[in-house]
Amino acid sequence: MNNSKKILVTGGAGFIGSHAVVELTEAGFEPVIVDNFSNSQESALRGIAEILGQEVKCYRTDCTDAQALREVFASEKDIAGVIHFAAYKAVGESVKEPLKYYHNNVGSLVALLQVMEEFRVKNLVFSSSCTVYGIPDELPVTEATPVKKANSPYGNTKQICEDILSDLADSGTEIKTIALRYFNPIGAHASAKIGELPLGVPNNLVPFITQTAAGIREKLTVFGNDYDTPDGTNIRDYIHVVDLAKAHVVAINKLLSGNAEKLEVYNVGTGEGNSVLEVIQAFEKASGRKLNYVIGPRREGDVPKIYADVTKATSELGFKTETSLEDSLRSAWNWQVALEKETVSK
C-alpha cells in the first residue's frame, strides 16, 4: 500500500477541481494542481489558499502535452494518485467546435495515462459525466443503463474516454480507475472564496441565474419549454459542488486501500431531478430576488431529462449528498455577491 498522500489534480483551479483540492487537503492529502488556465482563473488559487491558510503547489501545464506532464511527474516524487478534471465541458460549444473537444478531452487522457504508466502511478479518479447515457429510455439512470449515442461531441468525448479506460483495464495495466459520472454540479464553498467562475458568457444554468440576479446579464433564457416533462423544461440532477468534491476523496481512499477493481464506475448525483423552472423558483426563494427570464428555443445537444440512481455509490462507497437544492443555490448567490464586492473594491 502506498503511504504517500500526494495527489495530482489536473484542472485543479477549475470549478470542481478547486473544491476537490480543498476537500483533499482537509482530509489529510497533499494536492498538487496542474492547470493551463484556459478555462479557469488564478484567483481560484488565492481563494483556495485563503480557505486552507496555505498555498497549494500549482504547475501551469497543458495536459495534452505529454512531455510537460513528464516534467511534473519527475519533479513531484511519490505521487499516490491522480484526479483528472482537466477537460472542456460546454455542450453547446462542443457542437460548434468538436475538434477542440476531441483534442483536449481525449488527448489529455491518453497523454496522462501514458505518463502514469511510465512513472508507475497506479491510481486514477476520472471525471466522467451523465452525458454518456445519451437520451436514456428509463429514469433514473443506473450504472448499468445502456450507454447510447451521445447527444453532443462533449458527451462523446466522455464515452470515448471511458472506452479507453475500459480497454486499458483489459490490457493488464497496473492502473486502477474509478470513473465518477457527474450529474450537474452547482453552488460554491461556504466561505464564498471559491465557486463557479465562467470566462465570458456562462454555459451553465446557475451562474447565468446568479449573473442575471446581480444585473450583469439582462435576462435569463430558458432553452425550451416544450419538452416531455411536467413543466416543459429540462430536468437535471443538481449536486452541490462540495458534495461532489467529497466523492473524490472517498474514491481516492478506495483506490489507495487496494480494494478497487481495475475499472469501477459510479453515478454521483442526488438521485432527484429538478426542472429549470423549479431551479429558478428555488433560487428566488433562497436569494429573495425575482429573476427576469424568458422562454427561448431549445438548445442543440440538450437531453430532455436525466437524473441519477445513486444506490451503487451509497452502498459501495458509502457516499451520500448532504446539501439541498435551495442551500446549494443560496451558496451560489453568496459567491456571486462576494464577487461583486471584490469587483467594487478593486
TrEMBL record:
EC class (word): isomerase
Cofactor entry: NAD(+)
Highest taxon in the source lineage: Bacteria
Gene3D superfamilies reported for this sequence: NAD(P)-binding Rossmann-like Domain, UDP-galactose 4-epimerase, domain 1
Family annotation (InterPro entries): Epimerase_deHydtase, NAD(P)-bd_dom_sf, UDP_G4E
MF GO annotations: UDP-glucose 4-epimerase activity
Pathway it works in: Carbohydrate metabolism; galactose metabolism
EC number(s) per entry: 5.1.3.2
Subunit: Homodimer.
Family from the record: Belongs to the NAD(P)-dependent epimerase/dehydratase family.
Protein name in UniProt: UDP-glucose 4-epimerase
Organism whose genome encodes this protein: Adhaeribacter terrigena
